[in-house]
Amino acid sequence: MTNLWTSLFKRGSSTGPEAEEIKALSDQFRITLRASAGKVKPGEETRGVLQHVRELLAKDDWHWKDAYEVEQQLVLLYDAETLRTELARRILEAKHVLYPDAASWYKERLDEADTEQSQRALLLRLVNDLQWRYTVNEAKLGYVKQITGRTGWIFIIAMISFVAFLLLLFLESQWQQSGFAQLTRFLTFLLAGVSGFLGAAFSMVSSLKARLEAAGLNQLKNASSKAILFSRVLVGTGAAMILYFFFESGLLAGEAFPELVDATGKLDDSAGVRALLIVWCFIAGFSEKLVPGLLAKTEASAGVDDAQTMSHAAEAAETIEAPRAKDTAAAEEEAAASEEVEDQEPGDTANRDSGS
Predict the structure, then answer these.
(1) pLDDT below 70 — which residues of the chain?
(2) In the chain, where are the structural domains located?
(3) In the 8-state DSSP scheme, what is residue 40?
(4) What is the model's pTM?
């Protein structure tokens, strides 16, 4: 188990076939550089540079950075003929290593470089760009290996978890007979989550090559993070669990969807229903847009329902308040009439009485 997690989280190793291959390549490159340095004719102006090159080539702890330094120093030591030959060869190399625009730019500058000084400056710049691109590609390769290895282990874990839950659910009949129906429901819920886990892992593996080829160095650094890798499968697992509740609540129903609960509220654990549940939860984990789209539509539908509810409530309030308003107006008229009677003088009342 320790070796499994070490291979899952540790980036590469300083030993093994890969390290031996790198050492063999660097040693071969040192032989080539020594041959190039041996062709240089010592001079007063280049004596110090040539001595430094020889010291670097004689180092016991030889690294690629030493090789790159020697390569740049040799540009300062080339004679005119070697300089032109090396410049032409390097521009051809740039077509396969650098970006197309950069390679075209160097080709144009070569046609304009008509002096030894300008050619030397151009070659020095070109060697520097090539070395930088090789360094970036090597760093990207390390991250690609790391991401590929971790993604593979995530997919293996997802497959093992999925098969394990299927084996557990094969024992459901015994659990139901022993009164463990709730345990079966819980395991069905977990099966939905594991199906989403598997779908997310499958999505990562199937799109891995395209994503790695399109990613730059900084993107690969971010993508190699354990948190980023595991967040993708956790999102897929959570999406599948949310989809399970959509099915159980009846918010998502139809012939193509599983009916998990019958009219009596009992879990339908038939093979067909469970197969549909696995398929849809796998799709929920595989797709990054299915469940968010369902949630957005549900939210929009809830907003419409709330607006309709408020409108119906307002209409009902108006219906209730209209008779009350009429009764209030009639009561106010009667009160006003009685006040007029009370405000009349007693003499006026007596005159009306005698007249009558």
Answers:
(1) 1-18, 169-183, 303-356
(2) 15-141, 145-294
(3) P
(4) 0.58
